[in-house]
């Protein structure tokens, strides 16, 4: 039986994506002889008091074409759709991402020769209602969430970002990309670029020297919370073995969601005398959709709420294996992911493939990614809930309208519009008391990359405290970050190290006040910058990060992956460190997990290592959007010898001159 999926929408709605997929349908486990059928998302209309509040359905067929019946499955008949009562003429709102856009095609050639993939991103503002509550939002190419970028390792990515906002600048960061040799395309406001002013464009242009599940998002203030985010998936031949473990794959974004524009919440959060009271989300979204009970808002709240709001349905075939690529694209909340009655097999953490580990729940903090394999081998008598339970212990307050469990539906019962019955049962495992990662020691990379011995070691602290004007600020070793006006630390470093000229570099000899190992004072009072790989040699840097705070924080380092070497609380055992961790060939750490975002628990410490071979100014920060804006960011300046001879492309440099204040 052959099946075919029609070509997915192109990688770029307005561009010339070269990653066209003309799939032949997904690969099937030969032993099971499952026939491929319509595989698509359904959007359920919720509310109207049906059952658990979920009843009516309508479907969008964009991503699938022919269908065939799995013999025993009642799912086969297309006439089942849409469910009774749904408005058969209802259309996907034009700003909504078609769920089919996040299906990945198993016929993608992971061995293809390198190519250049072009995308156009046009950033606009408007109104949207992902969960029914109407609010001001930002869109990429008119849609939320952003388009799937899919590429191969070795490809070049060229993205022309055009800012059509009325008043504010923007900048897009490619989370996890090494940007080796192209630091100025890292997209980090005040560090690698000034914002793109309204009416202007910037063409990001860099090669992809890595593979796995990544994402992109605005790195301009808290702007990504308003909608500028999307998935970035990179394939590579290394993936071949893992691909034997699944028949199809889907991208699943999960995020917290607020009903107000992010700057409104930010202002409240940073208001004087407001210590440690981060805005609590109003809801969560899966692939930009979720149910919200409009009756939670009476008219006093001033929101418009549409009762036809929807949640994502992942429609699968029985007895197939699906790789779900989860990405937490949110602002604040960690989620515990689970599927009722199904164990999940974790095979990837932040782009590192790992030996499969079976779990009931997967904790995923902001900016982290996990791939899990879901096998549809349970009873077809019901649909099942996919749950993202926010770890509310990590909130310091209470939001009465928040349902802390964000839900979507896994359907292979044959009825895509049916509410999961009482036979869909959550795992009994208690939710954790804190925001905490899966234990790194349980996640063994499938490809061992033994950490080289360290050459440098730094201890860093961070804390929150009330400072001047009673403002709650976060500090790295006493320095609270603020965004620079009209310049970037990258620009300052290049100018200071040699003005981008050979003569200048020679004159400075790479040893002026900017080419400093350790804290670099020259950047001024609100930039904590640590110089590494300063002596024309490549350092292997160990960072021992101590939390002096009562909250959990997901820390992200730009431009690198790092090895998680050790976590603990209380005193650090220096003897053990010097004897058994620092040197090359230390046996206990050969299988250390590599990732780019880890969660540090209250008053604990984490020791991690990275190779500082990548010239540039690299942000290291808490990815909770509120904490970043409170100043919880520092930077590494790597390889001043290379930076002293570098030139920031005119298009990037010019953004600071064009200045919008940032
Ligand atoms: C919405 O909330 C109201 C009030 O709590 C409740 O009566 C109603 O059943 C809820 N609706 C759904 C669909 O959950
Ligand atoms: C939901 O209701 C709003 C307001 O009536 C409408 O604009 C939108 O198209 C509806 N969405 C769907 C999917 O029916
Ligand atoms: C980027 O897109 C804008 C808006 O469409 C266009 O004006 C500009 O020419 C594009 N830049 C490049 C280099 O293609
Ligand atoms: C622009 O930024 C200002 C202040 O930062 C904010 O109040 C406003 O809502 C923003 N507007 C948009 C469309 O981003
Ligand atoms: C980055 O580029 C440098 C050459 O400038 C190279 O030595 C290094 O291996 C590269 N690092 C990565 C992670 O690709
Ligand atoms: C991207 O960068 C490469 C290498 O510097 C260059 O050859 C190419 O012309 C650039 N492409 C665009 C569209 O700017
Ligand atoms: C279903 O698959 C999981 C692995 O994904 C396995 O652990 C479990 O035993 C299977 N259950 C049945 C009923 O086959
Ligand atoms: C799907 O389930 C719903 C809820 O139980 C029911 O109303 C509907 O008739 C079912 N559809 C089919 C085709 O069985
Ligand atoms: C789901 O698991 C629960 C608890 O083990 C069980 O009672 C229930 O029957 C299972 N549901 C299905 C559809 O197998
Ligand atoms: C950061 O502060 C800690 C505690 O005071 C100190 O031990 C450490 O050396 C400092 N790190 C740097 C890079 O200055
Ligand atoms: C510190 O590490 C050394 C070497 O591994 C070990 O002998 C010693 O017992 C440790 N000290 C403590 C307090 O755990
Ligand atoms: C940044 O540029 C803007 C616009 O040119 C100007 O108003 C502002 O004063 C500049 N800020 C600094 C700190 O130079
Ligand atoms: Cu934080």
Automatic annotation (TrEMBL):
PROSITE patterns: MULTICOPPER_OXIDASE1, MULTICOPPER_OXIDASE2. Keywords: Copper, Membrane, Metal-binding, Oxidoreductase, Transmembrane, Transmembrane helix. Gene3D superfamilies: Cupredoxins - blue copper proteins. GO terms for molecular function: copper ion binding; oxidoreductase activity. Residues 65-86 have a biased composition (Low complexity). SUPFAM superfamilies: Cupredoxins. Residues 124-238, 250-415, 537-641 form the Plastocyanin-like domain. It comes from the Eukaryota. Signal peptide: none annotated. Residues 1-25, 65-93 are annotated as: Disordered. The chain crosses the membrane at residues 31-58. Belongs to the multicopper oxidase family. This is Multicopper like protein.
